[in-house]
Request: fold
Amino acid sequence: MSTLPSAQTLAPAASSTRGQLNGILFVALFAAAVMRIASVPAISGLGISPLIVGIVAGAIYGNALRHGMPESWAAGVNFSARKLLRIAVAFFGLRVSLQEIAQVGVPGFTVSVLVVVSTLVIGTWAGMKLMKLDRDTALLTAAGSAICGAAAVLAFESTLQSKPHKSAMAVGSVVLFGTLSMFLYPLMLNAGWLHLDTLGAGLFFGGTIHEVAQVVGAASNVSPEATHIATIVKMTRVMLLVPVLLVIGFWINRSRNASAESAAQGKGKIAVPWFALGFLALVVVNSLHVLPDAATSTINTLDTFALTMAMTALGMETRIAQIRQAGPRALATGAILYAWLVGGGLAITIGVERFFG
Reply:
């Protein structure tokens, strides 16, 4: 005969749930303040997104003031940094459409694929072999440079289930070198160091700059046409997040299975990141124009807020002492990748434009 749970049993559970909700609310309020800060012209004018501001502000709080936060709120912070970010990454798909990708055609898609694949391979190799970084830190740094900056770092962090400080190091690389691109790229083009036409400039900017906002900021100094092409090429790189995550998930699973086999634990199932499939599904929804434009715009605004919450929570869980251990090596890996994006990315752009021209 079953018995009903006692009041003493229910009380801790109710307290835990209340603590988690308080933690989520705290992160939401913190993220709202972050978005206000990010909207300040001095910051937004540099192409620095709320996601970047969020992880920096969260890290400052987490290392200087977190001792004042009730311990019961930690579950809410962890929820925001893990489960909420998966949902937010999936809804990022509403920013991409198949029609936009078709506008830049085969050249734009080719540049995106070559840049993403080569940057991931070079970044992982350089990080692990040259800089002696662990696999997760090398992959996160490579993903941030190869695909879509902080959003890619978040997606990979979720798939790899890595520590927050590793994501913080990767985001630091995105901030530094992505911001540098905003000033360096237009300068090189206007000074005549880059012999690129409007299409070439759009392909190069969109194919090699880290964040979407940074692409727009840099290309807007060239022309509206170059900005349009660069933005579409950049969103094509974002689209590649799905197949890359599936391949990485399969690779990570094989590694885990190999370890399990050596310990006589047998094989597991292939880990498919569901949020990547959700991302792809919402790209299709956006391409079919099922939702009104106003609804899509509202969802994208809410999604930016959710991503900012996730980034802020990751910052709160980051410890500076952990970053110091690999900080210079992670930054050096980012510098190697940046040199490749500028030199190798330019070579890829010129080669593709000539081949299809």
User: Anything to note?
Assistant: The two ends are 79 Å apart (CA to CA).
